[in-house]
Amino acid sequence: MYNITHHKRNNSIDIDEFSKALLISQICAVASAATSLRGQEDGRALDNRIIGGTQAVDGRYPYAVSLRDNLGHFCGGSLLAPNVVLSAAHCAQPGKLIKVVIGRHDLRDPNDGDEVNVQTQIPHPKYNQETTDNDFLILILDRDTVAPDARFIRINPNYVSGGTPVTTMGYGDTNPSDSVSALAPILMHTEVKTVSNDECKQSSGSVGGVEFFGISFGGYNASYQNMITDNMICARDNGEDSCQGDSGGPLVIRSDTGEDLQVGVVSWGFGCAHPNFPGVYARVSAQYDWIKEQVCDKSSSAPESFGCGGSTPITPQVSTQVTTPPTQGISTQVTQITTPPTQGVNFQGPESEGWIKIIEEDFTSAFGIFDQPPGTNSATHYVTAMERADVVRIHGGSSGVSKLESAELSLSGSPFEHYKIGFSVYTVSTLEQADDICLGYELNGGDIKGEKCWGSSVLAERRWYDDMSLQFAGESISSLKLSLRVDGDDSSDEALIDSVTVYGKASNTKHARSKSEEQQENLSSSAYTTHKSGILALVLLTVASFLFV
Fold it and tell me: In angstroms, what CA-CA distances link 226 with 200, 204, 382, 490, 503?
C-alpha cells in the first residue's frame, strides 16, 4: 500500500492533492491487480481458518470433528464418546437437522469418515448468549460412530495457567490463491500460548479499518474488560490464532505421557490473530463436572477416563499446569463498543465511475466489521457455501426476521460527499411475496437513517446476485453503521452474504469550477498577451517605417 503525504487547509484535504492521489492510486491499482489475492493482508493469508497454521497430518487429531448442516461445515467439535461430541453452545441450531462428520481429513471427500445425525443438542444450562459465558454444547448422536480411525479425547479437570503451550485446530484452505471451485478445506493446526485471565481482561484496541491520508476509516474500538469470566481461557501467539470457522473445536495440551488433553473450546474473540486481542475459549476445567455428568448419563459406552459409576477418573499429568484457580471475582457485564479516534484506514483503490473502495468485508476473517457482542446478530459463518468461500448465513431470527449489523465504523475526516454500499447475496429460500432482503445504514450515531429493500420480483431465483447496492450523499459524516436484514414471515426465510463493500466519491463540482475558471483566466491572459504583442508589433513597424523613409 502506498502512503501519500498531503497538506491540510482548514482541517480538510486539499482537493488538488486528493486528485493527484487518485491518479497515483489508479496507476498502482492497475500495476497490482494481476497479483492481488483474496484473503490476504500485508502479505499474510487470511483464508485459513487457523491463522498462521499448517496442514495437520492425516489422523493426527482423530477426535476432531466437523459440524455440518444443509449448507456445509459451520463449526468444529471433539469426540468424547462413541455417541457424544463436545462443541460450543453458540453453534447450536435448535430444531434443525445437523450432522457430525468424524474421521474426515478433507471435507471435500464425502467417502472419508463417518456422517452421523445429531439426535439431541444440550447447551450448558447457564450459557449466556449475551456474554458467551459457559459456551459449552453436548451433542448426542443417533448412533455410535463407526469411523475406523476415530479416537476419544480426554478432557482436563485441572486449571491451566498463563504461558502454557496449547494447540488449536480447524478446517481451512491450504492455498489462499486457489479459486473458489478449487477450495480444499483441510484440517489445520497451530500452537499458541495461554494468557492469564487478568492479562486477557486488559486487552483493548482498534478493530478493523484502514488508513488513507493519515485518516482512519471503517474501524471501531473494543475492549475485553468485564468480558472475561472464570469459565473462559485466552490464548494467542504472534500472527497465529483460531477464527470463527473453528468455533466449537478443541484447544488441547500435550500431557507428560504424550497424550492430548482438551482444555478449551473455541468460543469468540475480536478479529483473527489480532495483535491486541487473544482468542477466547470456554475453559473445560470450569465445567468438568457438568460435561462428565452428560457423558456418563447419555453415552452408550462412556470411556474409563471419565470414571463413571463411581470409579476414579484417569487424568494424565501435565507438568506446566497449576491446579488452583485464582479467587478473584469476575463480572460478566459486556463492555460497549465505541467509535475509535480518527487514526488509521486504507482506501483499497479506485473503481469505475470515480468510486473509491473505502471498506471491503469479504468475511475471510469471520464476521470482520460485523463482529458484534454475542446475541446481536442472527448469523453463522461458513468456510464454504454455495460454491463460494467465506460466506455468512443470515437466519434463525425471531418470527422470520434475521439481521446482521456492523459495529459503528469511523468516517471522521472523510473527504467524500457521495457513498455507495454494495453487497452479494444468495437467496437460500425462495422469497415469498411478503419477504424482503434489506440493506440499511445509520450515519452519525443514528441521526440519519436510510434503507433499501428488494423483494421476490427482483430476487426471484435461488442464485448469487452480485450487483446489489444503494447510494446516498452527505457531508461531515463521522460514523457509519451497516445492517442487512432478512424480513420474512417464517423461520425458513434466510440469505447468504458473500461480501459487503463501501465506496466513496468526492464531489468534483467545486474542483471542476476552479479548473474552468483557471482555463478562462489562461485564455484571458493569452488573449491579453496576444493583444499586447500585436500593439508592440504595430509600434515597431511604424518606427521602422519612419527610420527608413
Answer: 10, 12, 29, 36, 35
